[in-house]
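note to self: dont lose this again. the chain is below, predicted strucutre after it. 361 aa total, dont forget to put it in the shared folder this time
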Amino acid sequence: MSDGISTRPAEMRLTERAADYLASGPADVVALIGHICQLPNPPRVVAEHMATALFAGRTQFKRDAAGMWSLSGGGSAPRTAELERVTPVMVEPEAVPAAPPGRPVRLAMIDPLAPPRGYQTGYRATHSGLAHVGESGMASGELTPCAAADLLASLSYVVVDVETTGGRPWAGDRVTEIAAVVVRDGAIQEVFETLVNPQRPIPPMITALTNISWAMVKDAPVFRDVCDRVLAVMQGNVFVAHNAAFDWRFVTAEVSRANGQELMGRQLCTVRLARKLLPQLRSRSLDHVAAYYGVDITARHRAAGDAVATAHVLLGLLRDARDRGCESWPALEEMIGRRKPRPRRGRPSAMPRPVDRDCGA
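---
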């Protein structure tokens, strides 16, 4: 299973895009940086600086006497400065031949801005199942039933909760406590929790909410010291949290600061899932959803207490999803992604309206 949580160097995505772009031949620095960073026509001095910083120490890339960047292994004729854009074309199911047998099934992330050199072989989710994606990036295999590796019952999950000094992970706020609960085969298998020294004061209002004080964390390890353990618990699992975007941003920021790695993988938000499966609840807060499933929260607003409760909530939500016929990851993504269209509200006109009743009496 290759879509669980994993890490890679944060700059790897840019260098991969650069390698793909330069595979067709040398490129001017303005066109190169404009493509890989998606900056239309960056100033040459800025592009030069960014290229120097990005490719420093990377023997994969070289620059010739004319200032053109290329791959060290050579390439074909120089390409134009115009960005090449590729829009993948969906193939109708009945027009698709059979997928090759024995090919591992995985989801391929298709980037429409990537150069037309080809995409990684894999499978792409569609409304009807998974379509094989060949080296051209087009659906070239027959729509197949979801692979066993994508069945919700066969996936493993890590439910994460963080307590923090505030709500801005990239603007000064840090993690004060983290918990990670591994859920596999319909049960909780492992619970990891630790206090974290945020290396900055904890606001009184946060202490009042979480009961985490500076005295509790001043001798705790900093995140860098527990980062490897956190990643080991999360490795290969689907990242789950109640309001997952919040916890994902903080864990990503802390991991990036600790070892320069980029967090990547599947994410599942139990708030969004509860909105789809439990529309009758007046609130999808953890308190309300936990009460619906009869889950007691032993320590509210503490990482382990909230994470364990969310893990039990996750098991209830997955049962309800299965009862509705949703048994695979692609089906779950499709269900969560559907949004009811909201009626458009036009801005009221400032022009005088016609008189339709007598207001003078």
